[in-house]
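Progress report, Aim 2. The chain analyzed during this reporting quarter is listed below.
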Amino acid sequence: MATFKTSFPVRYYETDQMAVVHHSNYIRYFEIARNQMMVQIGFPLEKCERELGIQVPIVSVECHFHHPAHMGDVLTAVAEYDKVPLAKMTIKQAVYNQDGVLCADGVVVLGFINAQTFRPVGCPEVIAKLFEKYLNH
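Predicted structure tokens for the chain:
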């Protein structure tokens, strides 16, 4: 399993009137972790689009809520994968508070499309090799 983590504070605008993080923000937190994962493996999404002409849209999102996060919390968003992507990339996601309490978890499935034709394509070889490198560490 390859695991990537990033931490950040809860911002005021992410909360509701009860100072609880609104549920829609967890999908954004998942994205923060996935984007950081791509940066850490050495191929950020903007490079994928610019150099390869490939976009990486979300195919599906599953999110389960376990414990509310609050204003003032420092969250850690996690992205993990356990196999090299082929046509789709499956990322296990989680968000923890500063005490290590699981706030939400889920699975995000991403695809690969040609940015000009919007037709599905397989995972570019350069990205697959980077995923494999981190999986084998």
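Residues 37 and 51 are 18 Å apart (CA to CA). The chain has a mean pLDDT of 95. These observations will guide the mutagenesis work planned for the next reporting period.
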